[in-house]
From TrEMBL:
Name of the featured protein: UPF0223 protein BAOM_1502
InterPro entries: BH2638-like_sf, UPF0223
Gene3D superfamilies according to UniProt: BH2638-like
Sequence similarity: Belongs to the UPF0223 family.
Species of provenance: Peribacillus asahii
SUPFAM superfamilies given in the database record: BH2638-like
Length: 90
């Protein structure tokens, strides 16, 4: 599916790609499954680009409005999952 990915146009091309990679991992958790390792790697990079909690919430809320997918719920489930596990939202 196609979504509107939230972004800040002051980000570099690499940062934009990395943020999109994070949101794609969130979508994969809903549409099929994603490894915890892949998801958390993308999340850590996202947090380097968007370190503030308020900004993180704004971007993830914007993505949720566009896609219906909650980054918060996916990350919460990932933190409860074994390191070699898979994240799949139902």
């Amino acid at each position: 599916m196609e979504y509107q990915y939230p972004m800040d146009y002051t980000w570099s091309t690499e940062e934009i790609v990395d943020v999109i990679t994070f949101f794609e991992a969130i979508a994969k958790a809903y549409e099929s499954k994603v490894s915890k390792e892949e998801l958390m790697k993308a999340y850590r990079r996202f947090k380097e680009i968007v370190p503030g909690k308020a900004d993180e919430k704004n971007y993830t809320d914007e993505f949720q409005e566009s896609s219906g997918y909650s980054a918060y719920q996916v990350i919460k489930k990932a933190k409860e999952t074994a390191d070699d596990g898979w994240i799949q939202m139902k």
